[in-house]
Structures are given as C-alpha cells and as structure tokens.
Design goal:
Keywords: DNA-binding, Transcription, Transcription regulation. This is Transcriptional regulator, LysR family. This protein is an alpha/beta fold. The protein folds into 3 domains: 85 residues, Orthogonal Bundle (Arc Repressor Mutant, subunit A), CATH 1.10.10; 95 residues, Periplasmic binding protein-like II (D-Maltodextrin-Binding Protein, domain 2); 97 residues, 3-Layer(aba) Sandwich (D-Maltodextrin-Binding Protein, domain 2), CATH 3.40.190.10. It contains 10 helices and 11 strands. The strands form 2 sheets. Strands 3, 4, 5, 6, 7, 8, 9, 10 and 11 form a 9-stranded mixed sheet that branches. It has a two-stranded antiparallel ribbon with strand order 1-2. A hairpin with a 4-residue loop joins strand 1 and strand 2. The chain is elongated. The protein starts with a helix and ends with a helix.
C-alpha cells in the first residue's frame, strides 16, 4: 500500500471542513482534485471514509476511526521535513550536556524550556558527572558542553567560561551525629570523624580539596548524590551542595556551623576547542552565559 501525502491531506481537510470545496480552498486545489484524492484513498484502504450528503460530508465510523491515524502520519511527515531541513542547514542531530550536581540553578530549567521551544525535534541528552569526569567526557567528545564547579586549571584542549550562577556548599552530617550537637564546630572537631568526599577530587584540582579536618579517615564516592546518601546513613560528614540537600536530604541532615562555611563556588561551562559546536550547542552556550 502506497498512500500519497496528497490523499491524506485531502482527507484530513475534508474531515475538518465538512466539504470538498472548503478543503479545496484551504489547500489551493480544485474541488475535483480533492474529491478524486479522497476517492483514491478510499480505494487504497478499501473503506468508505465519508457519507456524501447533498451539502455536507459526514465521516463514517471507519473514517472517524482512521482520521486520528492519518493526522499522526501527517504530523510525523511534518517533523521529518522540519528535521531534515535543520540537518541540511547544519543542525547537529543530538546535543549532550553533562553537569555537576553542584549546579542546580532554576535558570537551567528555563534554558531547557527555551531549547525545547527553539529546537523541538532535536535529540537532547543530559547526565551527571563531577570534576575530572566532566572534563574527560567533553574532551572525548561524549558531551558537547559541561557544567562544573570552577577549577584553577583546565586542559589546554578545553575552552571554558564562567557563569553568573554560583554553587552554594555547606558542611552536613546526619541529625543525631555527635557533631550535630555542637553549636559551633572547630576544625579539630571535624578531624575526629570520617570525611566523605568525591573520589574524582583525588586529582588535586578540585576547589574543595582543602576541606577542614580532611586529613584523617575518608570514604569517597563519584557523585554528590551518593555522598549525600552516605551522610544520611551516618558514615561521616560531607561538603554538599545546599540545594541538593534541600531537595533530597533536608529532613535527615544537619548543617554544621564552621568558620568559612557555607561557601560559594563559581560555576564554569566547558567545551572542546577541537570540535566546533553545532548551532544548538552554540545557542545553548550563549544562553547559559547570558543568563
């Protein structure tokens, strides 16, 4: 079966307007062309789509049942043509963003809404990683853009720029932990208890390498959400993004009062110098920087 787009359009318009003549005016065709197209479709489908009255068309039961499928086919055809046109103009077929749990700004949600409106047919992928892992994923081409807590040094093959947003960090421990009973926590107090930290910080380029009292016992995990869960289970204290704690552990964790904390860390966006950004990635980069 080879259904022509013209026949499908003619059927959908005739169903919407209730007459071949009205459908013809909307499509810029003659009435006979529309009538013949619908008749061809009925022959190809072997069903009667309309009851043809003197003044108005009425969908048959079969016609009403098939109409939604025809509309789905036409919508898919429109998406196909639009996507093909965008790809022909240079739009990348897929955009991948990797970001740290440190970046939880509400502006990010607004940028995604704008991306959806501007490029509705673009395949978008987003996943979480931390510090060196973000850089590796962008450097390898696995991700087009990366968001992470700012670092002092970046690999020369990566470009970077600072966002207006900052990551807000505090020191947290489970409620009921001996540290949570102290009105003010000293560095010496922290040193008596296990610190929970990102395993990726072992490369000594993270901004939180200088955690107070972190020279003793240590457990590590590859992301902040796992660190949060370890803190909730009472395994130690951790420096965590405050917004992440409010979203996932606010009822279980206590924020410690330590000199110099909470602290804000700037957030950077990174991309590869050796792989030119496509139109969608370049647009998203500009929107992130201008927010």
């Amino acid at each position: 079966m080879n259904l022509s787009p013209e026949s499908l359009h003619a059927f959908a318009q005739a169903a919407a307007t209730g007459s071949f003549s009205a459908a013809a005016r909307r499509l810029g065709k003659s009435q006979s062309t529309i009538s013949e197209a619908v008749s061809r479709l009925e022959m190809e489908l072997d069903v009667t789509l309309f009851e043809r009255g003197a003044r108005q068309l009425t969908l048959t039961e079969a016609g009403g049942s098939l109409l939604s499928h025809v509309e789905d086919v036409l919508a898919a055809s429109d998406r196909l043509q639009r996507q093909a046109s965008q790809l022909a103009s240079g739009l990348e077929p897929k955009l991948t963003l990797v970001l740290s749990d440190a970046y939880q700004a509400s502006r990010y949600q607004a940028r995604l809404a704008e991306l959806d409106e501007r490029y509705p047919d673009l395949e978008f992928e987003c996943f979480f990683a931390e510090h060196a892992d973000v850089l590796e994923l962008v450097g390898q081409g696995r991700a087009h853009l990366g968001l992470l807590a700012a670092r002092a040094v970046y690999p020369p093959e990566l470009a970077h720029a600072s966002l207006a947003d900052a990551a807000d960090f505090g020191l947290f421990v489970v409620k009921g932990h001996p540290l949570s009973q102290l009105s003010r926590v000293r560095v010496e107090d922290l040193a008596h208890w296990r610190v929970l930290r990102l395993s990726s910080l072992a490369d000594h380029h993270g901004e939180l390498d200088d955690l107070p009292g972190s020279g003793g016992r240590c457990w590590s995990a590859p992301d902040y959400l796992l660190l949060l869960e370890m803190a909730v289970l009472g395994f130690g204290w951790a420096a965590l993004p405050r917004q992440l704690v409010m979203s996932h552990g606010g009822d279980s964790l206590h924020e410690l009062k330590v000199n110099g904390w909470p602290k804000q860390l700037p957030v950077d966006v990174v991309w590869s110098r050796g792989r030119p950004l496509g139109p969608a990635a370049a647009w998203l980069l500009e929107r992130l920087l201008s927010a």
